[in-house]
Amino acid sequence: MTIKNAAVLTHYWQRDPNGIAPLDTIRDYLLPKIDYLLTIEHPFPGSGHVFSYAILYKNGKKIQEVKTENKINGPAQYIWQFFVTWYFLLFLKVGRFDCIVAINNLLLMAVWPFRWLGRIKTLVYYTIDYMDIRFENKILNGLYHGADRLACRLADRTWVVVQRQIQARIDRGVIPDANKMVVVPMAFDQSALIRKTVSLKQQFSLIYVGTLTQKQGVQLVIQALPGIRKKFPLATLTVIGYGDYMSELQMLTSKLKLDKIVHFTGYIGDQMELQKRLTEAGVGLAAYVPQADNFTYYADPSKVKFYLACGLPVIVTDVPALAEEVETNKAGALVEYTTEGVINGLEKIFKDYRAYKKAAIQMGAGFNKEIILRAAFENL
Description:
Low-confidence stretches: none
Structural class: alpha/beta
Oligomer: single chain
CATH superfamily of the largest domain: Glycogen Phosphorylase B
CATH class of the largest domain: Alpha Beta
CATH topology of the largest domain: Rossmann fold
Strand order of the largest sheet: 4-3-2-1-5-6-7-8
Number of strands: 14
Shape: globular
Strand content: 15-25%
Largest sheet: 8 strands, mixed
CATH architecture of the largest domain: 3-Layer(aba) Sandwich
Radius of gyration: 21 Å
């Protein structure tokens, strides 16, 4: 498919123009290839942010940026964002769009009237996560699945990040057209990555990057650290990120008297600094809690892929679809969600660290945005 004008719409918790979120990756892929690109970003309710942004690019250069304040709080904010989206599309006169990618079912429904009016040639619904039980409230959960079902039917093409999402929709009666639902995994720009040979001390540097919630399982690694240190005295832990579980993790660290070897950096928005820290660490951590409402089961967690792209062997529990592939490729260790599981996994990696690191680099090289997104857009 030939694309000259395109748009990408998403919601955000934290805006990062140099980030690795799907919008950033798709934007960076399309910018040098098309005439006009419009990006629209709305804040999630509860994110602490109130502004929606629209940025228009021409021939790879930003020519206009507009922002508007959300006047409504709470879930009703989504309705307000419908009108803001229409305002952006009408105010920034791009004309007809060859393709619009909506990374949210509500945003897809917001732009669908423009598809119906012939202003959009191809409308893509990109689902980066999915859950059987998104909300404990049955009414809200029903509305969520109803919105997803409608978005799948309105879209010309639905991109999913893992095959599990397709099967889950089949089980729920959302029978996908094989030609409309396509697996498009998370991908990264790896052109600036410089993978390094780490020292013996750095090899035992464990690192976590991401939002700090209970479901991410950082608490398990902290609980395992005393046992890890008995076998590997040089082991340390760096936690990069922020979230509502951060204070609990810090209290657990103090309770176990690990303050000298566990370092909380907070959120790091500079991607070059983040990559530097990752390439200088030894092992990436993705000890997801194996529970039914963990959205990672139906997602393609960028955390694991980012670790691998930076050359880090990974400790991962059996939650994301990628976990078995990591184990099969010996790019890390698939572990049980127990302290012993984490310790045994690290022991396996450190026993032949060079081989695991080499396998991680090889596996990570496959998550290249140029390869993955070229195939996705060419097959529209």
